[in-house]
Amino acid sequence: MTITMQAKDLTDYVGKKTGVSRWFTITQEQIDIFADATHDHQFIHIDPVKAKQTPFGSTIAHGFLSLSLLSAVAYDAGVNITNTLMGLNYGFDKIRFLHPVNVNSKIRGHMVLAHVLEKRPGQFLLTWDVSIEIESVDKPALTAQWLTMTIINP
């Protein structure tokens, strides 16, 4: 569930977990569509027969597929700032892909607001500590610092 707040209250949440997303099941169809969209057709992603012979035991999601799901995670676990005109991706720091996501795994995201900087009046650069958890796996699929820009209506 997303927290709704005014921009002036953002700093009250620095260092706090803003939420945990719902579970997302990673299907072979999603992996195949992502492979087509990114032109990354390595067999470990798209060939279940060959991938079964690897240490992974099945096809695995692209790391960037898991990373791209952070947008969906943010809708569930981020913050909703009142009077927002738009939110933009600003970049990433310290991305680490720590564990493969096997096909049909369930993943969910965790978000902690790490830093807030008002770059200009009404433009807030937010730094998030994010992780993607895999159901029944101790190690996260990925961790990263995600930078987003929120622009408030004038």
TrEMBL record:
Residues 14-114 form the MaoC-like domain. CDD domains: NodN. It holds the Pfam family MaoC_dehydratas. Coiled coil: none annotated. Gene3D superfamilies: Hotdog Thioesterase (3.10.129.10). SUPFAM superfamilies: Thioesterase/thiol ester dehydrase-isomerase. This is Dehydratase. It comes from Paraglaciecola psychrophila 170.
